[in-house]
Write a structure and sequence with these properties.
By secondary structure, the chain is mainly alpha-helical. It contains three helices and no strands.
């Protein structure tokens, strides 16, 4: 079963924006921050993972230059997006 990291981000938003009966607001907000960052990290990791797994474990890789350029392009897209934030 694959976990949907968007749901984790939604949970972070809920924790941050909807006061609850939880007595410690600081703990609730710290938890929201942690979940938001971890959701973003996992989405980026999953985006890059499939090609990396192939490069790390397969003895023979067809069209390795194409795979390398694809990985570099994807990584650059993520870095560029983060630079704009």
């Amino acid at each position: 079963m694959s976990f949907n990291w968007d749901d984790y981000l939604f949970l972070a938003q809920e924790l941050a924006t909807h006061p609850s009966n939880f007595p410690n607001q600081e703990a609730r907000l710290r938890s929201a921050i942690s979940r938001a960052y971890y959701s973003a990290f996992c989405k980026a990791r999953d985006f890059l993972r499939d090609d990396r797994r192939c490069a790390d474990y397969d003895d023979v890789i067809r069209d390795l230059p194409f795979l390398a350029n694809k990985a570099l392009g994807r990584a650059q897209d993520i870095v560029s997006t983060l630079d704009k934030i």
